[in-house]
Amino acid sequence: MAQALTLARPYARAAFSAARIDRQLASWSACLAFAAQVALDPQMIALHGDPRVTPGQMQALHLPPDAASGGAFARFLEVLAEAGRLNLLPFIRDEFDALLRDAEATLEVSVSSAQALDEAAQARLSESLARRYGRRIQLNLRQDPALVAGVVLEAEGEVIDGSMRGRLQRLAGALAHGN
Hints:
Structural class: alpha+beta
Strand order of the largest sheet: 2-1-3-4
Order of helices and strands: HHHHHHEHEEEH
Low-confidence stretches: none
Mean pLDDT: 87
Number of strands: 4
Number of helices: 8
Shape: elongated
Strand content: 5-15%
Largest sheet: 4 strands, mixed
């Protein structure tokens, strides 16, 4: 995986640069999301490296239906197809989106909660995190009933466990060690 990420990084930077110049960052992000999803399909994985399938055919399979066949994104896919690198699209998408978040000063925060958060709670959480990190916040919400109550936040490798399960685990650890 580390090698794939290393190979994908220059392609992601080139894609980001092209998208930024054309002021098409959101469009490229959507196109990369589509193409990455196609690249992850098990049937598509089987086609990678098949000598019966031409690079042009592979490019066409990864091109979103609403993208211009002669446009910049199509040419980008053509370069990847010719180099046999279409399998890197999921990594390229992730790197591109990270560059986009950095450019927009946005922080992606994963939020696991015992119950679904209503819009007001999401807004309060976003505002609080924006003050803490000094950036706009993009929440990725997930429900996990095993948390019992509260939330667990993950951002930039930092985990903030405010769940009841986490508190009970810390209490059990303290009691087991006589603290």
